[in-house]
Amino acid sequence: MAGAIPPRQDKSWRPPVSDTSARNTVLNPPGWPQPKGYANGIKARGNMVFVGGMIGWDIHGKLPQGFVAQTKQLLENIVAVLKEGGAGPEHVVRMTWYVTDMEAYRSSLPELGKVYREVMGRNFGAMALVQVVSLVEKDALLEIETTAVIPD
C-alpha cells in the first residue's frame, strides 16, 4: 500500500504515561454529597483483576454463622484472591454485593463498617447492593463480585 505507515520495528515501545504511580481517581460530581462507604465512580487505568462471586466460607468449606461473620470471611477471601493477582484492597474499583436479606444488611451496618475497614481499610470503590432470593450455597447470606485495577 502506497503511503501506509510501516510497522514499528521496536516492539517494546509503549506510549508515554503521565504518572505511573497514580492511584485510581474517585469520581464525585461537584455539589453532590460525599458518599459514605462507597464511591459514585472510579477512574482507573492499568491491569485488571476480576474476583468472581465469593462467599464467606473458610479454607475447609465451612460458613461462619451470622451476616457479619460471613462478611468478614468473605472480604478476607477477596483480599486473598486479589493478592494472587498482585493487587490489594487499595486497587478495588468496584464491588457488587448480593444479599439474601436486606434487613440483615441494614441492621448490621455499624458492625459491617467496622469489619469492612478492618479487612479492606478505607478503600471504597463504586458499589452496588442487590437483594436476591437465594444463592447457590443455601447457607450463604451474601456474595460479592469485585474488580480491581493495578495502575500502570
Question: How would you summarize the topology of this molecule?
Answer:
Layout: E1 25-27, E2 41-43, E3 46-54, H1 67-84, E4 92-99, H2 102-107, H3 109-120, E5 126-131, E6 142-151
Parallel strand pairs: 4-5
Antiparallel strand pairs: 1-2, 3-6, 4-6
Helix pairs in contact: 1-3
Q: Specify the structural class.
A: alpha+beta
The largest β sheet comes out as:
4 strands, mixed
DSSP strand content: 25-35%
Helix coverage percent: 10-25%
**What is the CA-based Rg, rounded?**
19 Å
Q: Poorly predicted ranges (pLDDT <50, ≥5 residues)?
A: 1-8, 10-22
Structural commentary:
24% of the residues lie in helices and 26% in strands. It contains 3 helices and 6 strands, in the order βββαβααββ. The protein has helices at 67-84, 102-107, 109-120, and strands at 25-27, 41-43, 46-54, 92-99, 126-131, 142-151. The strands form 2 sheets. It has a 4-stranded mixed beta sheet with strand order 3-6-4-5. It has a two-stranded antiparallel ribbon with strand order 1-2. Helix 1 packs parallel to helix 3. It is globular, with a radius of gyration of 19 Å. The two termini are 35 Å apart. Mean pLDDT is 86; it is low at 1-8 and 10-22.
What's the quick description here?
This protein is globular. By secondary structure, it is an alpha+beta fold. It has helices spanning about 65-85, 100-105, 110-120; strands spanning about 25, 40-45, 45-55, 90-100, 125-130, 140-150.
